[in-house]
Write a structure and sequence with these properties.
41% helix, 4 helices, five-stranded mixed beta sheet, 96 residues, alpha+beta
Length: 96
């Protein structure tokens, strides 16, 4: 597992403050690996999920740091979404 994924899992779990996510989502960070978010929090993994969000490392970090809005990233083509768009919208609340 890459350092980027390890750091992102820790940051996501801190943002979620011990709360799970109602559903399942996967962040696919290009060239680094994948992170799953579900009722148990965030963890490294590549399971099937309701929605998969794909972005570069820089875009993912910007979203996680609050420097880029996930909706803006999607609308500008920096973030791709495959699967349940409703779950993706719910997830943006977790990231803010």
């Amino acid at each position: 597992m890459s350092d980027v994924v390890t750091e992102a899992v820790a940051a996501l779990n801190a943002k979620m403050d011990g709360q799970g996510f109602d559903g399942s989502a996967k962040f696919d960070i290009e060239g680094e690996g994948s992170i799953i978010i579900d009722e148990n929090g965030a963890r490294a993994g590549d399971d099937d999920t309701d929605v998969t969000l794909t972005a570069t490392t820089d875009t993912f970090k910007a979203i996680l740091d609050g420097e880029m809005n996930p909706t803006t990233a999607f609308m500008t083509g920096k973030l791709s979404v495959d699967g349940d768009m409703g779950q993706a919208m719910k997830l943006s609340g977790v990231l803010s």
